[in-house]
């Protein structure tokens, strides 16, 4: 607890307004950002120059941006989706303080800082062989893991599941996402609770398994199994 108190005292805390930029590629890579409250997102420029959503960020260490690729500019930035409280600290100080934290806590923190870029890579690689239905199901499972709380009908998302955001994440148009969400509701793969989306993880995973029941152990199945499993029901 002493190290955690030191870490808390070492943070420079600020409030970031909704839709404001928390940090971008101009900021020093030697500074770590910790989302204390609120919801953020990481976006980048696609090959057409349009800004697109890459990752939704829950409270915790904000993932660092991937190393730059020579000749390619992604223009990554982290933006506030809601009003956010953000703590910043120099990486050198973070490591020096954190080395005194219990091993399991340090590993959790390091994993959080490295972020879930592995999931993004898996998503992009496997989406090429998935139907839109399957891509949407995978994204809903990912969001329910990062932004879900128990609900009698499954896992309720604590952030608005905007059709535009889902469309960006799966690479489809917003009208098509709306059509598929209606279809998912009819199949009881998802439902609504006070306008919030509820994901039935068991039904979604069964739906994905059935979609590939004759395809063997495909790369898609590997990606599905790579998603962490929640310890709650639903």
Question: Would you give an account of this structure?
Answer:
It is a single chain. With 234 residues, the chain is of the alpha+beta class. The protein has 2 domains: 2-115, Jelly Rolls (Sandwich), CATH 2.60.120.10; 120-226, Winged helix-like DNA-binding domain superfamily/Winged helix DNA-binding domain (Arc Repressor Mutant, subunit A, Orthogonal Bundle). The protein is built from 9 helices and 12 strands. The protein has a 4-stranded antiparallel β-sheet. Strands 2-7-4-5 form a 4-stranded antiparallel β-sheet. A 4-stranded antiparallel β-sheet has the order 9-10-12-11. A hairpin with a 2-residue loop joins strand 9 (148-151) and strand 10 (154-157). Helix 1 (2-10) packs antiparallel against helix 2 (91-98), helix 4 (117-127) runs antiparallel to helix 9 and helix 6 packs across helix 7. The relative contact order is 0.13.
Q: Using the CA coordinates, give the radius of gyration.
A: 19 Å
CATH architecture descriptor text of the largest domain: Sandwich
CATH superfamily of the largest domain: Jelly Rolls
**CATH class categorisation of the largest domain:** Mainly Beta
Helix content bin? 40-55%
Number of spatially distinct domains? 2
Query: Unreliable runs, pLDDT <50, ≥5 residues?
Result: 214-220, 230-234
How much is the average pLDDT?
Answer: 82
What's the assembly state of these chains?
Answer: single chain
CATH topology of the largest domain: Jelly Rolls
Name the shape in a single word.
globular
For the terminal residues, how far apart are their CA atoms?
34 Å
Neighbour order of strands in the largest sheet: 1-8-3-6
Largest sheet: 4 strands, antiparallel
Structural class estimated from helices and strands? alpha+beta
Number of E-state strands: 12
């Amino acid at each position: 607890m002493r190290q955690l108190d030191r870490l808390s005292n070492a943070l420079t805390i600020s409030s970031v307004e909704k839709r404001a930029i928390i940090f971008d590629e101009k900021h020093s890579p030697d500074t770590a950002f910790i989302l204390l409250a609120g919801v953020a997102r990481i976006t980048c420029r696609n090959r057409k120059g349009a800004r697109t959503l890459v990752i939704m960020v829950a409270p915790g260490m904000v993932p660092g941006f991937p190393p730059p690729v020579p000749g390619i500019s992604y223009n990554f930035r982290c933006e506030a989706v809601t009003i956010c409280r953000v703590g910043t600290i120099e990486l050198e100080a973070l490591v020096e303080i954190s080395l005194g934290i219990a091993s399991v806590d340090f590993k959790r923190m390091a994993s959080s800082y490295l972020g879930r870029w592995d999931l993004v890579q898996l998503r992009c690689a496997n989406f090429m062989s998935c139907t839109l239905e399957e891509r949407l199901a995978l994204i809903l499972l990912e969001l329910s893991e990062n932004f879900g709380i128990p609900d009698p009908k499954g896992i309720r998302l604590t952030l608005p599941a905007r059709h535009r955001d889902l469309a960006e994440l799966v690479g489809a148009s917003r009208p098509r996402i709306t059509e598929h969400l209606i279809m998912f509701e009819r199949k009881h793969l998802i439902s609504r609770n006070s306008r919030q989306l509820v994901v039935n993880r068991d039904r979604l995973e069964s739906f994905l398994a059935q979609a590939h029941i004759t395809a063997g152990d495909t790369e898609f199945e590997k990606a599905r199994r790579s998603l962490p499993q929640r310890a709650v029901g639903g």
